[in-house]
Amino acid sequence: MSKGKFYITTAIAYTSGKPHIGNTYEIVMSDCIARFKRLEGYDVYFQTGTDEHGQKIEEKAVAAGVTPKEYVDRVSGEVKRIWDLMDASYDNFVRTTDADHEESVQKIFKKLYDQGDIYKGAYEGLYCTPCESFWTESQLKDGKCPDCGREVKPAKEEAYFFRMSKYADRLMEYYDAHPEFIQPVSRKNEMVNNFLKPGLQDLCVSRTSFSWGIPVDFDDKHVVYVWLDALTNYITKIGYMPDRQTELFQKNWPADVQIIGKDIVRFHTIYWPIFLMALDLPLPKKVFGHPWLLQSGGKMSKSAGNVLYADDLASFFGVDAVRFFLLHEMPYENDGVISWELMVERINSELANTLGNLVNRTISMTNKYLGGVVTDAGVKEGVDDDLQKTVLESVDKVIAKMDDYHIAEAVAEVFAIFKRCNKYIDETTPWILGKDESKKARLQTVLYNLVESISIGTSLLSAFMPETADKIFAQIGGKVRQTDELHTFGLYPSRDKVTETPEILFARLDLNEVLAKVEEFYPAPQEASAAQKEGAEEAVIDIEKKPEIGYEDFSKLQFQVGEIIACEAVEKSKKLLCSRVKVGSEIKQIVSGIRKYYTPEEMVGKKVMVLVNLKPATLAGVVSEGMLLCAEDAEGNLALMTPEKDMPTGAEIC
Predict the structure, then answer these.
(1) In 3D, which of 416, 299, 288, 306 has the Cα closest to residue 32?
(2) What is the Cα–Cα distance from 144 to 190, expressed in whole angstroms?
(3) Residue 124: beta bridge partners?
(4) Which one has a higher pLDDT value, 302 or 520?
(5) pLDDT at 537
(6) Which of 18, 455, 505, 623 is 20 to 30 Å from the Cα of 204, by its Cα?
(7) pLDDT category, 522, cuts 50, 70, 90?
């Protein structure tokens, strides 16, 4: 019996170009949630799609020598191809160029205009074309767009505006009454402090300087501006019109969760709920602003040549290995990191060793000793109870983590089942039991417990790695169970037979071989010029010597190699930079007084020496969790200390 409806959406992908792996994370995460909710017995409706209007699209189409429609048809098709490649189980792929969406947007615009929420005026300000956003001088950062850091240009044009300030107090009251609305909570604090408390400005909702958009049907000089067009897809494409609503809309709205990137939280938690309030519609139950996936070396950028694409990665590792990595590596709130080295390490340790080896060994031993027949002979020992306890507790933990969208922690709990199974093999030694005919019943029980545990773990795994789950069940028999059935140990049908020839799920990879293939896809950076390599005469500096210390004092300090994966200036300081530094599997936030000597862009990608066990301190309102080591010359200039040779992050400095 269904537990009720569950409506989940992703942000719709902007059709300016092919989505990279960071964009793809969102569809994989959302698909995982949708699949898990189906496992729990919910009637899921999962919507995704593409955002296809705007000035940037019009300019790209002109540059490509095609019409805007031809341009978005191609890019939208590419987005859909990648979403399908990644096994996304969506119910509806929307396009904002769809006729039903355009008609509904026009009617929404007219309704809001008629009730006085939209009015005609003129806009004069600074415009960022890539972000399609207007800014005032005071909102700029270092004279550039505060969102993307690019140049802005003066712009003036007639426009329609939405009265945002009219609903600001009502939105704040909603935040207070629904603390779960914005997840993680830190995103809510940012919205309140940076946007609501300073006061909302009325929002430009039409443009006249370009034509690629939905026409305002009562004023043909204007097209509907991006956010009123794009955001409303969540209701228009399930059948909302101001004058009528379909059964699909009435069943599914409000959305149970809307999954978006942290960079567009403002639009989804301020503009979107205010639009809904003006339409007298309920707000979504939750908006989850997920973190970014950063390429090792910094944020992905085509100009930097460090963009990774899902289809390339899938061709190297397989779709499910890529899905696993994305879901396993992304923290709940902080940014995650992807690199070829990390992917190979995770595939070898978790997928090949922990999971693949477990399934292969279990099937092989069942065939070797029991003719492939899985039988519960009921000869129990204490270790069996501990295995069952771990498995069933992990089921509850996975469900709890998924309810809170702590996806990476849920993946870890699934693999805790498989790791416990491997330990159980070592504890019960089936290869020894198999040599003693009198121990056959005990051996049957041991292998039954393993197959049943694998069956439970694989049922959970099906939300994360659906193809792999299908492969495992094809080998061990049985089928995916819903979560209600996973609280009972022993439902695997006794006397079922495993496959005679187990398939290798994941082969171990050789890192050097993978990196050699990578060069075919991603050329190495150009070497420095001769002038850059030419060194200057080295100065000799004498400094005041500090008192001698003993080895025991020095041994208290922990130095490791770190890699800066993101960096930004500290707003309240002219001297400080805040860096996110990957040290082994940990990411630390470190504030350093080196803004005079490095830009944030220069910092990203550097391998640095880090004092990692320094007590956290707060500098200019920002917590610092370590120290970057620098050298200082006679004039006080600073230079980061970096390893002479390429060393892995986390390497100990001794």
Answers:
(1) 288
(2) 20
(3) 156
(4) 520
(5) 36
(6) 18
(7) low
CA distance 502 to 90: 32
CB atoms within 10 A of CB 68: 23
Q: What is the mean pLDDT of residues 398-406?
A: 96
- Please, are residues 19 and 35 in contact by the beta-carbon 8 Å criterion? no
β-bridge mates for residue 258, sequence order: 9, 287
Return the biggest CA–CA distance within the chain.
Answer: 90
Distance in angstroms (rounded) separating the CA atoms of residues 164 and 2 = 39
Can you say whether residue 340 is alpha, beta or left, with left for phi > 0 and alpha for psi between -120 and 50 degrees?
Answer: alpha
* % the chain with pLDDT above 70: 92
Within its chain, how far is the Cα of 219 from the centroid? 40
Q: For the chain, first and last CA: distance in Å?
A: 61
pLDDT averaged over every residue in the chain = 89
Residue 212 and residue 224: Cα distance in Å, rounded?
A: 9
Convert the pLDDT of each residue in 309-326 to its tens digit: 999 999 999 999 999 999
Residue pair 649/588 in contact (Cβ under 8 Å)? The answer is no
What is the pTM for the complete model shown? 0.78
pLDDT at 528 over 70: no
Do 302 and 532 contact (CB within 8 A), yes or no?
Answer: no
Q: In the prediction, which pLDDT does 632 show?
A: 76
CB atoms inside a 10 Å sphere around CB 95: 20
Per-residue confidence band for 551, with pLDDT thresholds at 50, 70 and 90: low
**What are the backbone angles phi and psi of residue 257, rounded to the nearest 5°?**
-155, 140
Tens digit of pLDDT for each residue in 553-579?
A: 666 788 899 988 888 888 777 788 889
| Mean pLDDT (whole number) for 24-38 | 97
pLDDT tens, position by position, 75-123: 999 999 999 999 999 999 999 999 999 999 999 999 999 999 999 998 7
Q: Which residues lie below 8 Å from residue 314, measured CB to CB, with a gap of 6+?
A: 85, 86, 322
- 3-class DSSP state of 327: helix
What's the rounded Cα separation, in Å, for the pair 359 and 504?
9
pLDDT digits (tens, 9 = 90+) for 167-202: 999 999 999 999 999 998 888 888 888 888 888 889
CA distance 595 to 142: 13
- The contacts of residue 578 (CB under 8 Å, 6+ apart) are 567, 568, 569, 570, 589, 590, 591, 622, 624
What is the per-residue DSSP string for 147-201?
TT----EEEEEEEEEE-GGGGHHHHHHHHHH-TTSEESHHHHHHHIIIIITT-PP
Q: Provide the b/e sequence for 31-42 (b: ≥16 CB within 10 Å).
A: bbbbbbbbbbeb
3-class DSSP state for residue 527? coil
Q: What is the DSSP string of 386-418?
A: HHHHHHHHHHHHHHHHHHTT-HHHHHHHHHHHH
Strands 257-261 and 586-592: unpaired
Tokens representing 138 are 């005071």
638 beta partners: 632
Question: d(Cα 649, Cα 630) in Å, to the nearest integer?
Answer: 18
Does residue 468 or residue 21 have the better pLDDT? 468
Distances from the Cα of 349 to the Cα of 59, 132, 469, angstroms: 47, 44, 18
Q: Distance between CA atoms of 603 and 136, rounded to whole angstroms?
A: 29
